[in-house]
Specification:
five-stranded mixed sheet; alpha/beta; elongated
Length: 275
């Protein structure tokens, strides 16, 4: 039997020990590298991150009920987020955006008002039409004046309100009146569709030309009367991420919810038409 010298045994042991330490160090470096990669992909750091923080959405007044519901859904699905809304006339909102008001998303009630924003280069990309809307006549509950057509709004003594011509619902009303060859002088022009509807709800007016979605949202406080000329005045609703959005990642996620099957279901139930 051959006996291996002691110094060779010690050298072999040291060699094995060195290999073991080197292997352990390599594994540690690999693990550290993996942790570093994982850290770089953490929430809020880029693609695949979870939305967080507050987003500000400027939206047409007619979207108030639907977007409020979607905002709650978004916050529920993405803990740690908050959706802050500013509802109003699309032209007023567009002017605010071009004037530097901080916002992440703009949802307008017409392409014309969205164009105000895109022409100034304040949108991050091309807008997308996500729903459409058409007009209805809102009358007092029970329709005591027996209004059945757009022409009936010209009856003597009838107090009718319209949206201002500069806002989408007002522009659409003018298109419908022109299509029917009807001349109508309202008792007032309102700055947005909610203001026009409120005049009827408070019985300060007998009728108003508004969106059918607003008639539906008002419930039994008004009576809706459809009219055929509304088919000539259907409004497309575009939505866009804004160029200087303070929270672009979360804003993109909210827009995705609006355009998703879940979002479309909420909007369709409110009376909006598919794009």
């Amino acid at each position: 039997m051959t006996t291996r010298p002691a110094h060779r045994t010690r050298r072999a042991f040291r060699t094995r020990r060195t290999l073991q330490v080197t292997g352990a160090a390599t594994m540690a470096l690999l693990a550290l590298s993996a942790c570093s990669s994982s850290s770089e992909a953490s929430p809020g750091s880029g693609e695949g991150s979870q939305p967080s923080g507050t987003i500000t959405v400027f939206a047409a007044a007619s979207l108030e009920e639907s977007f409020t519901k979607l905002g709650k859904t978004f916050e529920r699905e993405h803990p740690g987020t908050k959706v802050s809304f500013s509802f109003g006339g699309s032209d007023t909102l567009a002017a605010g955006i071009t004037g530097g008001a901080p916002a992440d998303v703009f949802a307008a009630a017409s392409p014309a008002t969205m164009k105000t924003v895109t022409d100034r280069g304040d949108a991050a990309g091309p807008p997308t039409t996500f729903v459409r809307n058409r007009l209805e006549i809102a009358t007092l509950p029970g329709n005591p004046d027996r209004i059945s057509s757009l022409k009936d709004l010209t009856k003597s003594g009838l107090k009718v309100v319209l949206c201002d011509r500069t806002v989408p619902c007002g522009a659409a009303a003018q298109t419908a009146l022109k299509a029917g060859g009807i001349k109508l002088t309202p008792v007032s022009y309102e700055q947005d569709v909610k203001s026009a509807l409120t005049k009827v709800e408070l019985k300060e007016a007998d009728a108003a030309v508004v969106y059918r979605t607003d008639v539906r949202a008002a419930g039994d406080r008004v009576k809706g009367v459809p009219f055929p000329e509304s088919a000539d005045a259907v409004n497309d609703y575009p939505i866009a991420l804004l160029k200087n959005a303070p929270n672009a990642d979360a804003a993109k996620a909210f827009i995705a919810l609006v355009k998703s099957a879940e979002g479309q279901k909420v909007l369709n139930r409110a009376g909006f038409l598919k794009p």
